[in-house]
Write a structure and sequence with these properties.
heterodimer, A: Rossmann fold, Rossmann fold, 7-stranded mixed beta sheet, B: Rossmann fold, 8-stranded mixed beta sheet, 12 helices
Chain lengths: 407, 320
């Protein structure tokens, strides 16, 4: 039996500590992990919990991230609660096994501390790894600060492990900006947290010796399509309701309200920035400022759930605006940004057709500043006024040298 | 520790209940199915198994069918070792917590991973090394047919010198594969593994003994099983055991074990040693070696096998 940790009502935790505390409270059976900046402290913290008797599961320090996810898949198929953490190159190395985990419907929780992808090598935060995972069949939850990293990591277990869902879940937070910034976090106590998540519900465990199961079979053109379609079907039809249910239960317990798509000052907004991660908090602050100082009815929309993509809620959130800026913190390498592509696909099907533009920002941890957000809102106001783009459709912000724009 | 299954004779062994179904898609004459069946029949304990991508995997778990009457998982080409290590870690964790399924009561499941030589010597090498360094209580079985058979016969680092494969073909100016077969057993012994052994399906008693010894061993066990491949070695499907006999009797594939990284024991000494020439001559993959310009390699092969046998005997005598 693991020892309980006495926690204060308010702890000062960075995002990594917040995520590792949620992992500890989940009483995970197997963590197979490998260190990589900036998620390394998650693994270190967990090792320290184990060394001091706060963890009674297995902690397998493997030799690579590929092995980490491979061990997680084997452990999850055996039947029990499983989680790990990674970033960037480690995430990329895991990529093969991410698809295996979701294809076998194994509810593994992966804390992803977002970081850029090399080359050039960079340890800082952007969303390249998060975007790399977007077609892998995982549920992707996005936290904007340490409190949310804690809350969403706890909720990730409850969502993914539900027998109706049985899908792996990524709990994202921004590298360094969230992972290494200590803030006030209000945790549940150990009993409350475990009670909230509940016992791991076993489904077809390899360890049930009376009922052998076969995982990871071969299917070709005869059955592969049906399996993939079934997985997509469940992502599309079951996850939204379950996430809302868990968000509601969490609000009842903590008073903290989460939405599949977060909206800030959107009731009467003419223009909106849509963004992911810690940037959301900067833009909220700037939107307030724009309203006060410039008279621009600015708002912010932030998907809490990146996968499955909450199409209807995005349409609803943007139903009253005249101009939208989609902020992508990843190099699109030859296209519009991924968030832009999702949003444009959604608003095209909407009755409202705002002007939608794309901003590429903050790559490799480059600061996203208040001034940059202000400039974007001003351009949005001009687009709203003109009823058409007054700028190129895709612009790079915060980049050295001459202004870079496309389309 | 579970009881060792008693097997008196071949008849009794061959008629014990199958846990690996004969209904599979492996080639007629494939040694894989013989080896796997022998391993599964060596114990009455329940087993939890994994297989790497390869012939064994694609031929035994084609949805909606399975040939495995035990829990089984396949993830990828390189990670069957880590898959089963993860399952073993889960077993330990839930046992400690008293949260195993009721069906585990009084049972001690064995954790076994299978992989071909491509999955073992090449692409999965790091994962196996990691599992052995960490000391998981598992058995890794390499079904060593010395070639990437599932993808159509490409060379691996287990392919012996002189073999013609589709990526190291013999031709006008080439005798085929240029590299020596990697000494995987030695490498695994160097991990300090409590038990590693080479087995061959034709020497079934020796094989069962080693498998049972492996199952009685706590910690990681490595088994290198010679698996004669009718398709890529190019011999008739009903000659599998005859070819295997030539391999063990010529000492091309010596049978021995190493305990705790050092203690080497030879477990089979042929009464009538067969020339390597006979082993090579029985397989299409070495056919070109009998052309005058390459025949010198047959003598070199014999020399190589003799030296290796000498080395193994000295290691055994020295007991270090």
């Amino acid at each position: 039996m693991a020892e309980k940790m006495e926690l204060n009502e308010v702890e000062v935790w960075d995002g990594n500590m917040a995520a590792s505390q949620a992992m500890r409270q989940a009483q995970i059976d197997v963590v197979a992990a490998y260190p990589i900046t900036p998620s390394t402290p998650v693994v270190q913290n967990y090792g320290s919990f184990l060394a001091n008797g706060y963890v009674d599961g297995e902690f397998v320090m493997v030799e690579s991230e590929h092995a980490a996810m491979s061990g997680c898949v084997g452990a999850a198929a055996a039947g029990g609660r499983v989680a790990t953490a990674t970033s960037s190159q480690g995430f990329a190395l895991m990529a093969e096994v991410l698809y295996q985990a979701s294809g076998m419907r194994l509810p593994i929780v992966l804390v992803v501390v977002n970081r850029a992808l090399a080359a050039p090598l960079n340890v800082n935060g952007d969303h390249s790894d998060m975007y790399l995972g977007r077609d892998s069949g995982w549920i992707q939850l996005d936290g904007f600060n340490p409190q949310e990293a804690y809350d969403l990591t706890l909720m990730a277990f409850k969502i993914g492990e539900d027998p109706e869902i049985r899908l792996p879940v990524m709990s994202h937070q921004d590298g360094f900006i969230t992972s290494h910034t200590a803030e006030n976090v209000r945790p549940l106590n150990d009993d409350e947290a475990y009670e909230f998540i509940g016992e791991y519900p076993m489904v077809n465990p390899m360890l049930d010796l009376s009922k052998p199961v076969t995982y990871g079979v071969q299917t070709e053109e005869d059955w592969h399509f049906e399996h993939k379609a079934r997985q997509h079907h469940d992502l599309m039809t079951k996850v939204f309701g379950k996430v809302e249910e868990v968000f509601d239960a969490f609000e009842k317990k903590t008073g903290r309200k989460y939405n599949i798509v977060e909206k800030y000052m959107m009731d009467d907004a003419d223009v909106a920035i849509i963004a992911l991660g810690s940037t959301v908090e900067t833009t909220i602050m700037v939107a307030e400022k724009m309203r006060k100082e410039q008279g621009i009815k600015a708002g912010v929309v932030a998907p809490r759930l990146f996968r499955p993509w909450p199409h209807e809620k995005i349409v609803e959130a943007l139903s009253g605006v005249k101009a939208v800026a989609c902020l992508d913190r990843s190099s699109p390498n030859g296209a519009f940004g991924a968030l832009y592509n999702e949003v444009i696909g959604s608003v095209y099907q909407s009755d409202n057709h705002p002007v939608v533009t794309n901003y590429i920002y903050g790559l490799g941890g480059r600061d996203f500043t208040v001034e940059q957000a202000e400039e974007i809102y001003k351009e949005l106001a001009a687009n709203a006024e003109a009823g058409k783009p007054t700028t190129p459709l895709q612009q790079f912000v915060g980049l050295r040298g001459p202004k870079l724009s496309f389309y | 520790m579970s009881e060792i299954k008693k097997i008196k004779n071949l008849k009794e062994f061959s008629t014990s209940a199958d846990r690996f179904e004969g209904a599979n898609l492996l080639c007629p004459g494939c040694a894989h199915s013989i080896i796997v069946r022998e391993i599964l029949n060596a114990t009455n304990d329940p087993m939890i198994m994994s297989a790497a991508t390869g012939c064994l995997e694609v031929c035994t778990a084609v949805y909606p069918y399975t040939s495995w009457d035990n829990s089984w998982i396949h993830i990828g080409f390189e990670n069957s070792s880590t898959a089963i290590a993860g399952a073993e870690a889960m077993y330990k964790a839930r046992k400690r917590k008293g949260k195993l399924p009721d069906s585990c009561e009084g049972k001690s499941p064995k954790f076994v991973a299978f992989g071909g030589d491509g999955a073992t010597y090449d692409i999965g090498f790091q994962w196996i090394s990691g599992c052995f360094e960490r000391g998981h209580d598992m058995m890794y079985v390499c079904l060593d047919n010395e070639v990437y058979a599932n993808t159509g016969g490409q060379r691996s680092s287990s392919t012996p010198i002189g073999a013609s494969t589709v990526t190291s073909p013999a031709g006008r100016v080439s005798y085929g594969e240029k590299m020596m077969k990697k000494d995987m057993l030695g490498i695994m012994a160097a991990h300090g593994a409590p038990y590693v052994a080479q087995v061959a399906p034709n020497k079934w008693k020796d094989m069962i003994k080693k498998i049972q010894k492996g199952f009685q061993t706590e910690g990681p066990v490595f088994i290198n099983a010679m698996s004669a491949c009718t398709t890529e070695w190019k011999f008739a499907p009903d000659d599998t055991i005859a070819i295997s006999d030539l391999a063990t009797d010529s000492l091309v594939f010596p049978l021995y074990e190493i305990e705790n990284g050092t203690k080497l024991t030879i477990t089979y000494r042929p009464k009538n040693k067969v020339p390597v020439r006979d082993y090579l001559g029985a397989q299409g993959r070495f056919k070109h070696l009998f052309k005058p310009q390459y025949e010198y390699l047959i003598d070199e092969w014999q020399k190589m096998v003799d030296e290796r046998w000498e080395y193994l005997q000295r290691r055994e005598e020295a007991s270090v």
